[in-house]
Amino acid sequence: MAATVTACALSIAAYIVYTKASSSPPSGGSVLGLTLGIAGYGLMLFSAMLGLRKKFPVRRFGRASTWMRGHLWLGWLSFPLLVLHSGFAAKGRLTSWLMALLIITVGSGLLGAIVQHYLPKLMARVVPMETIYEEIPRVREQLEREADALMASLPGVGRRDFAWGARPAQSGQIAEAEIDSEVVDHLREVYVDTIRPFLSDPETVKNACSDHDRSASLFSSLRLYAPSTAHKILSGLESICEEERQLKRQRQLYRCLHGWLLVHVPLSLALILLGAIHAVVALGY
Amino acid sequence: MSQSAVATKKIEALESRPEPKELRRAPAKVHVTIDGVELAVAPGTSILNAARQLGIQIPTLCHQPNERPAGVCRMCSVEAGEKTLSASCCKPVEEGMVIKTNTEKVQQSRRVLLELLLSEHASPCVRQQRSGDCELEVLAQQEGVLASRFNAPAIPRGMDLSSAAIAVDHSACILCDRCIRACNEVRHNNVLGRKGKGYLAGIAFDLDDPMGDSSCISCGECMVSCPTGALTNKKVIPTDLPDGQPADVRFLKGLPYFQGISSTFLELNRNAVILRRVRAGDTICREGEYGSTAFLLLEGEAEMFLSSHGRHSNEKPDKKKSESLLNLKKLTSWLNPDRSHLEPAPLRIGQPMAFDIVKLEPGDLFGETSCVNHYPRSQTVRAVSDCVMLEILRNVLDMMLQRNGEVRKVLDLNYRKRALCAQLRNSAVFSRVSDEFLDSLKDTVGLLRTQKGEAVFLQGAASDSFYVIRSGFVKITQQRNDGEMVMAYLGPQQHFGLDGQDSRPVTATALDHADLIRIDNDGFHELIARFQEDREKVDLTPDPWRRPVPARPATKIDVPLQKFVNQGLMQANSVLILNLEKCTRCDACVRACADAHDGVTRLVREGLRFDKYLVATSCRQCRDPLCMVGCPVGSIRRQNSMEIKIEDWCIGCGLCASNCPYGNIHMNPVSVVDDDERIFPLARPTVTQKATACDLCSGLAEPSCVYACPHDAAERVDAVKFFGITPGAFSATAK
C-alpha cells in the first residue's frame, strides 16, 4: 500500500512539476505523458495476469494472496497514472471509450474488493448452515424428501398423500389414536398449500415460510392446534424451512460475491484490447 | 554365533524372566491338570491356550490366534474326561479338569484325521513345493503319516486362476475355514463363504463367482491365513523401499522373529522386508523423523542415542528446490515468502531425559516403537561397525506381532530397557525420584495397550493401581445423577488413577490407541518402604482433575471442548482451517488440490465450524493415525516427515478409508494396467480403486490449497495451538 501511495504521489508531483515548467499540461504524447501511459498500461497488464495465475494454481509463481494484493494495489495505481496520462481530457472517440471503460473497470474492481471484504463476514454470520454452492440443489432435494418423510409419519397421510412418493420416517410414526383426523387434514393442507410450495420454490417471497417471523408465527399457530405428539414433526418442518431460507440467503450472497466479476472481467479484457489499439494508433499515426 | 542363534538366545532369556503382573484385576482362577501338571488359569481360557502356557504344543490346523476358534479340523482334539475327544481350541477349561493331550487314543485320532485330510489334498501342494511349509504336509510328516489309506475324491475340485493376485487351488483346500474367518471377521470384507456338500464342498467367492469377477479386493488376508497351498500369491506387492534388496523368504523363515508367519505372506510382501548394508558411522534412523519401518540387526554393531535435546526434524524433502521459475533470490523471496514459521511444530512425545547410549548387537530389534505407534523416532541410531540389517515395513511387523507372541515380548523388553525410565521420569509423579528407585520400579510396572473406546477401569472398581500415559489420550468421566460428566481429557505423560480411595470414583476410557504404564499400588508402596529417601520426592497429590477446578483457561475463540475432542482435533498435527470471514468461496483451494493430484481433489470445503473457522474435510495428519492400522500392504505410511502418504502400491482395499473416523480418505477409481510380465505372468490386472488422502503436497514447500488461496483464508495449523487450547484445558472440567 505504501509503495502504491508513494508511486501515486510521485506521479502527481512529476505531473505538477512538468505542468509548471511547460506552462501547459502534458499531453499523452509528451515524454511524461507517454511514460505515465506505458506505466499505467503495464500495471493494467500485470493486474490482468492474476486471471492467468489462477489457471495454474499449483505452479510456484508466487502465492496467490501476494498476486491478489498486487492486483488490487497496482490495479488501483494504474487509474491515476492513466488519468494523468490523459491530461484530464478524452480527445476522440477511442480515448473517450477507453476512459469510460477504465472508470467502470476500476469502479467495479473497487466494488468487488469491498464486496469480497464484507460479504464473507456477513455470510459466516447469517448462514450458519452454509453448504457448498454447487451442492445447494441436491441439499434442497434432500430437504424436500426429509419434509415429505416427516409428513408421512402422520397417520393416514402416507396412504392418501403419497403423490410425492415419500416413505414415513423410520422413527416417530404417530399412531391414529394419538392424533385427530381433522388435525391431520389441517396439517396436510398447510403442508400442501404453504410449506411444500416453499420447499419446491424457495425463491418465492409471497410464501409465509420465506420470512423468518412469518414462518415462526405459522408454526406457533400449528403447534397450538396440533397435539404434542405432532410437535416433533412441526419442529422438524420448521428447521427444514429455516435451512431452506439460509440456502436462499447463501445463494443471494454468493451471487453478490461473484456477480460483479461478470462486469469486471470482460471490461478488463476489453480495456486491455482497446488500450493496445490506442497505443498502436497513437504511436503509429 | 549366527544371528538367528543370538536372537533365539534373547527370546529364551525373555521366557525365563518372570511374567509381568496381571494388568487387570485378577479374577478367580480355574485349576486344571494337563498331562499330569497342575495349572491355574483364568476362567474361559481354552484348553489349547492353557496347554501352551505349560509349553505343551497341541497341533492345530484350523486354529489361528487372531481368529475366532472354529473347531473344524479336530486336529487339536484331546482327552478331557469325556466320552469323546474334545477340540481343545474351542473347549474352555473347567475346574478340576484333567486333560491328556498325547494319549494313544489322541494320537490315533490325529493320524486318521491327517490321512483323511491328505486324501483330499493334492500333495505336494504349491506352497509345499515353493517353500516347504504347507502346514498339513509338515504336520503329517511330523506325525509319521506319509501316505493316506483313503482314496482321493473321484471328482477333481479344480483351480480358479481368474484373480490377478491370488491363485485358488480347490484341490488343496482342507476346508479349515481360516480364509473365511479372515475375510469376514478379520477384514470384514464378507466375500468368502462355504459352498456345496460332501466331496463338492469348498470355498466360494460371493455367489460362487470366479474370484476375479467377485467383489474381492485382493487384500490377501485369506491367502495369508491359508495353512496349505489352496490360496497362493500370483504376484508380489510392488512395495518400494529404498536402499536395499528384498530378503529371501527361506532366510526369513529361519529367523526366530519370523516364526509363525506364513511364507505366502512373506512372499507376497517380498519387497516389504529388505536387506540393508550400512557402513560404519552412517546414521540408520534419526531422532525426530517419522518412520514406518523397524530394523532387525543381523550383523555388526550400532549405537542408539539422543542426538539433540529439543530439536526435531520436520523437514520436507526437496524443500523449495527447483520450484521457482527464476533464480533471482530476492524476487522469489518476495513471491514465495518464507512461511516455515507457520508450519506446525513437530510433536514431542515422551521426551527422554536421559542421555544413555544403548549398544545394539545382532538380533536386536529397533525403531519398532515409531513403526507401531506412528510417533517420531525418539532416538538416533548410528552404525558403529559395518552393519547388515533387515528393514521391515509396518504391515510385516504387525503380522509378526500378531502371529509370534515372542515379538511382543521383545518389544516390551526393549521398551523397558531403553525408554521406560525416561518416560516415568517425565511424569509429574516421578520427576524427582532417584535413578535407583526408577530402576526398581520399572521391573514391576505393567505395559498396557488399549483400543479406541476401551475402558481402562470403571467407576466403582477396586482402586488398586494408577497409570501414566505413554501415548494417546484418555477420557475421565463420572456418572452422576444428571448423566455422565467428562472430568478431564488426559494426554501423554499425564497420570490418572491416584484416587486415594478404595474404589474408583471415575471411569477412564481410551480415546484412541493409548499405551499406558500401570503401576500397581501394592508394589509401589513396597518400593516406597524400601527407598525411604524417595518418599518425599514422589508426588502423590491426587489426579489433576480432582484438585479444585480452576476457571477453564481461555481459548482464542469459543471452542466447545467436547466437540473439539469428539472431532479428534487434539490428534491433529496439521488441520486445514478456512477463515470464513476471509474466504470468498471461490474454491481456489479445491481446484489447486485437484490440480496437484491428477484432477482428484483431496479436500472438501465442508466440515465442522468453530466460530468463524471451518475445519475442512481433509487429512489432518493425526498423531495416532487410525488409518494406518492394518493396511495389508503397508502402503499408507509416514516416511521421514509428518505427512501421511498413500504409496503407489496401494491395492485399494479401502481399509484405511473405513478406519479414518473423519472421512478424510477417499477411494477413487483408477485404471492401472501393469504390463510387467515378470510380476504378473498370468494376468494384467486393472486396479479399480485406490485410496487418496491429503499428503500436504509432499515435496512442495507449502500445501497447494494454502498457496493458492488469494485471500489468505486457508491455513494449515496445529489445532490445539491454533485454538489456544492449553494442556490445562484438557484437564479442566468440561461437559
Please give a structural write-up:
- The complex is a heterodimer of chains A (285) and B (735).
- Chain A is mostly helical.
- Chain A has two domains: 2-114 and 260-284, no CATH class; 133-257, no CATH class.
- The longest helix of chain A is centred in the middle third of the chain and has 34 residues, at 93-126.
- Chain A has helices at residues 2-22, 31-55, 64-86, 93-126, 136-151, 157-160, 181-200, 212-225, 231-259, 261-284.
- In chain A, α2 (31-55) packs antiparallel against α3, α5 runs antiparallel to α7 and α5 (136-151) packs antiparallel against α9.
- Chain B has 735 residues and is α+β, with helices and mostly antiparallel strands.
- Among the domains of chain B are: 249-312 and 348-418, Sandwich (Jelly Rolls), CATH 2.60.120; 420-546, Jelly Rolls, CATH 2.60.120; 561-731, no CATH class.
- Chain B is 23% helix and 21% strand.
- Chain B is built from 22 helices and 35 strands.
- In chain B, the strands form eleven sheets. Chain B has a five-stranded antiparallel sheet with strand order 11-12-19-14-17. In chain B, strands 13-18-15-16 form a four-stranded antiparallel sheet, with no helix packed on it. In chain B, strands 20-27-22-25 form a four-stranded antiparallel sheet.
- The longest helix of chain B has 16 residues, at 104-119.
